[in-house]
Amino acid sequence: MLRIREAIVVEGRYDKNTLSQLVDTVIVTTNGFGIFKDKAQLALLRRLAAERGLVILTDSDGAGFVIRNYLRGALPPAQVKHAYIPDLPGKERRKASPGREGKLGVEGMRPQVLEDALRRAGAAVLEEPAPAAPAGRLTKADLFALGLSGGPGAAERRKRLLRELALPEHMSANALLAVVNGVLSPAELRAAVEKIF
Fold first, then answer.
1. Are 46 and 28 in contact (CB under 8 A)?
2. What confidence tens digit (pLDDT) does each residue in 140-192 have?
3. How far is 48 from 45, CA to CA, in rounded Å?
4. Checking CA distances to 86, which of 66, 100, 178, 197 falls within 20 to 30 Å?
């Protein structure tokens, strides 16, 4: 079991149940879109962010990104890390049919996939040395130069890159920038782009 310093934010109780079998930390749910009206829950998230830091781990579907983007605007960016699960088709065992987009959510992910997502986000695993930050930082200008934002065909190129890196297809250029700056060096991103294009 991983002991993580930060608290983890997930969408619902089934996500929480799945994650609690893998990590030993505070896990808080947003109750889906309920977070939009729940001032007390948002205050709790702000307090946890200030005291421990937060890792936001939502599903990779459109609803998950709506919740993630709301929290991105409501919480101090320096106290929040974002973990992303890959887009995998399927349905959770407890459900009769797949969700609207036909993707597995946090509750349907294998434990190793969830652990990898948390580590890529930079979650502080206690009793392990902190991971070294990749050298150099990418900018929006780098993404533009690589054809991943701001130009014709950029959205399609970005989607292909996101598939190659096993990241959710709903990621914006800004979200991609935050993730690659946390887990890749500029050289690694350029190599991935050259491999695809």
1. no
2. 888 888 888 888 988 888 888 888 877 777 777 877 777 777 666 778 888 88
3. 5
4. 197
Q: How far apart are CA 100 and CA 112, in angstroms?
A: 25
Distances (CA, A) of 137 to 53, 68, 141: 22, 23, 11
DSSP 91-160: --TT-SS--TT-B--GGGS-HHHHHHHHHHHT--BTTSPPPPPPSS---HHHHHHTTSSSSTTHHHHHHH
Cα–Cα dist 155/162, whole Å: 10
Mean pLDDT taken over the chain: 87
Tokens of 156: 């399609």
Q: Which two tokens stand for residue 75?
A: 């919480």
